[in-house]
Amino acid sequence: MNIQTDFLVIGSGIAGLMFALKVADQGTVALITKKDIMETNTSQAQGGIASVFDQLDSFDLHIQDTLSAGDGLCNIEVVEKVVKSGPDRIRELIDLGVSFNLKEETGDDCQGQHFDLTREGGHSHNRIIHAQDMTGMELQKVLSRHVQDHHNIQVLENHVAIDLITCSTRIKRGVVTTTHEDFCCGAYVLDNTLNQVKTFESRITLLATGGSGKVYLYTSNPDIATGDGIAMGYRAGATIANMEFVQFHPTCLYHPNAKNFLLSEALRGEGAILCDKAGRRFMEKYDPRRDLACRDVVARAIDTELKKSGDESVFLDISHKDPAFIQSRFPNLYEKCLSFGYDMTKEPIPVVPAAHYMCGGVVTDMVGRTDIRRLYAVGETACTGLHGANRLASNSLIEALVYAEAAATQAIRDLHEMDFRATPPAPLWDEVGTSHGDELIMVTQNWDEIRRFMWNYVGIVRSDKRLSRAKRRIDIIQDEIREYYWDFKVSSDLIELRNIAMVAELIIRCATHRKESRGLHYNLEYPDRDDLRWQKDTIIRRPLLS
Known about the structure:
By secondary structure, the protein is an alpha/beta fold. It contains 15 helices and 19 strands. Strands 1, 2, 5, 6, 9, 10 and 17 form a 7-stranded mixed β-sheet that branches. The protein has a 4-stranded mixed β-sheet with strand order 18-16-11-19, with helices on one face. β1, α1 and β2 form a beta-alpha-beta unit. α1 (14-23) runs parallel beside α11 (396-417). The chain is globular and about 65 Å long. The protein starts with a strand and ends in a 6-residue tail after the last strand.
């Protein structure tokens, strides 16, 4: 089945939704999402959006905090663009109906300086705008409603993107190959409801598939975060960068039944402290900012403490604060912890680090264009240069908003100025000779093995020996996946396995290449930062077929 559209948006988080809204008046939009439109990384975001509104704050201070967190690898031009564009994007959200917390005395006044601003690790001032402790869910609800109501946007849930289509794409028995880079003209997509592969032909394609946390055994990300956009972009020939910089959030709830449950950094912004099981604070040993140090510092500190003590978790304690304040400021976190038997108003909560955010991704320019024509990338899928070696807390949502605006503006210009008449029709998906898989244990076994060795060997602390072991294992698994993928019909499980294996390989290759420690990448053999040789991005491209 062929579906033709002006804009194909792959992903339904804040980046994809905002882009779709901004281009929809200029052309038809097909927005595909793997599950329900609400099931995204955005909807899981608790803390908020970083932007300058306080009179004592400034763009220069926010820029400096972002550069400090990025540990020498941020693109200063990008940082200035995102920080200075932030307030306008926040006001746009308010115009769309997003409700942020305001200071009590201001009532319904939504003007900038009246936001109830809070602080998170790495920030020098209060500049986190939030909607209680579920900011992402508020954004997701409002933007999803606008997208679903727009007459020019078709939302297709339970549609899993398989691969991008370029002008030179050839299909043989379910395998996509490209002979050279030219331009993107759509994607092959599995309709999980009909169990049918559809061919989407588009003039402009946007990758907005979110994060890659499911590459690791422990993650704060939802199950859909399998790095699909990065894997598809790489296979199509797009440039990828900085995949070694995986951010581990320091404080996920440690409980056997608490899958993916994050305890927001805003807790520490409001005075929560980290301590061991005896109640002893430890962060002052690692950073003068103590509990409000950047995430890479805090995650490594916790990892070090756990390795020294042999304990299964450390603890996050906010019980010294007024119970009424805790319940009003963090109503959802409070109730969720209660459901697992912990009362944060009375006791410390056990926490461990977990994979949280990918700072690398598909390389883009200042307006979200990749180096494949007609292909854009926005949000966590993209590597814009904002985050460098480590993302400053709550900079991700503002980056997605700013780049969705920039990408939409450029994509509309492309739609009107490009000559699409020479675009060849995309070949239909060909699965002749394939059969339904009879060894599904291969999928589950390899899925589990990848996530476990990535956690043990390519996690918070790495070494050359661990990376070498991981590379040997991913090479074997990639061979098995290619053999299986060649012979059997695609399924969502197989597509996701193929993608996490690809992303795992990219992380291992980038981490092996960087012979220093910087930001989120820490190697025991190279514990120091080396600006002379390594103050540069790690660039990786797929060898093109002849």
